[in-house]
Amino acid sequence: MVEKEDPVKLHKEGNRLYELGKYAEARENFLKAAVLYEKAQNFFDATYSLFKAGECSFILGKYEEAAEIFMKSAELSFEKGYDRFGVSALEYARDCYKSLNKFEKAEELNKKIKDIKAKLEEML
Q1: Residue 41 resides in a domain
Q2: Which of 8, 11, 26, 35 is positioned for an S-S bond with 18, CB 3.0–4.6 A?
Q3: How far apart, in Å, do the first and last CA atoms of the chain sit?
Q4: CA distance 23 to 37
Q5: Mean per-residue pLDDT for 95-120?
Q6: In a domain, 1, yes or no
Q7: Is the CB of residue 27 less than 8 Å from the CB of residue 58?
Q8: Share of the chain above pLDDT 70, in %
Q9: 1, pLDDT greater than 60
Q10: Residue 92 lies in a domain
Q11: Average pLDDT rounded to a whole number, residues 16-43
Q12: Coil, strand or helix at 44
């Protein structure tokens, strides 16, 4: 019998590995957990797991990969109404593009972040 993977266990193990500085292994756990959370329609934990996977890639200096993961986290966050969390993911993606010397892309994201923050302020 094949044991079904548990996203909560993967997530917790990802956190443990992250704390130990084992970022590549942690990233894999977070990415698997995100897929499983999304299948279970637990979108908040899916976005959070993606965000943590992005952080791992960022720490490892894999900025292109990190930017993609952060953008996916942001997209899902905005789709599900987790706007402030989405902004944080966009800010990290922007920093990835800066690290890659892709300043035009970074500036595009900066404008998007400012626009979203302004809309969120209007809602208060």
Answers
A1: yes
A2: 26
A3: 52
A4: 20
A5: 96
A6: no
A7: no
A8: 98
A9: no
A10: yes
A11: 97
A12: helix
Is the alpha carbon torsion for 20, 22, 25, 28 positive or negative?
Answer: positive
Long-range contacts of 66-69 (CB under 8 A, 24+ apart): 66/92, 66/93, 66/96, 67/93, 67/96, 67/97, 67/100, 69/31
- Tally of domains in the chain: 1
**2, part of any domain:** no
Which helix (H) or strand (E) segment holds residue 107: the answer is: helix 103-123
pLDDT at site 123: 85
CATH of the domain at 90: 1.25.40.10
**Contact (Cβ atoms closer than 8 angstroms) between residue 109 and residue 70:** no
Q: State which H helix or E strand residue 50 sits in.
A: helix 43-59
Whole-model pTM: value is: 0.93
Domain membership of residue 89 as a residue range: 7-123
